[in-house]
Write a structure and sequence with these properties.
single chain; 120 residues; mainly beta; N-terminal domain of TfIIb; 2 domains; 4-stranded antiparallel beta sheet; 3-stranded antiparallel beta sheet; 2 helices; 12% helix
Length: 120
């Protein structure tokens, strides 16, 4: 399993400001950008909800806006390890940031976690 592990998701997922995280033009002249209008994170449930939209403007000037409301559960390291154990899997190896460095127990900073678990 490979995933982003966030010990404290608040700084990343609790944002009440507007931002754009992509914009560009394709070879047909269509311009597109994504807009985020903020998200709220609840540290008790580890649930996050936000609103965003994608804007496309064709070469002919037509604008299309596709709105999106999204929800995420951002699991803790303990939750993921517990789910694996509850599924009858044993964690053989765990690494951080695609390298050979093992995950810390517990991790204290955001990392890309890779966990290798097997059924005994």
């Amino acid at each position: 399993m490979d995933f982003d592990l966030h010990p404290d998701p608040t700084p990343i997922f609790h944002r009440l400001s507007e931002s754009s995280y992509f914009e560009g033009r394709d070879e047909w002249g269509t311009f597109g950008k994504t807009m985020s209008f903020g998200s709220a994170y609840d540290p008790l449930t580890r649930l996050c909800a936000g609103v965003s939209h994608m804007e496309l403007t064709t070469a002919e000037g037509e604008t299309i806006v596709i709105p999106r409301v999204w929800h995420k559960h951002i699991p803790s390291q303990a939750q993921v390890e517990g789910w694996l154990r509850d599924a009858g899997l044993e964690i053989e190896k765990s690494y951080r940031n695609f390298g050979q460095e093992p995950l810390k127990k517990p991790e204290t900073e955001p990392v890309r976690a890779t966990i290798w678990a097997l059924k005994p």
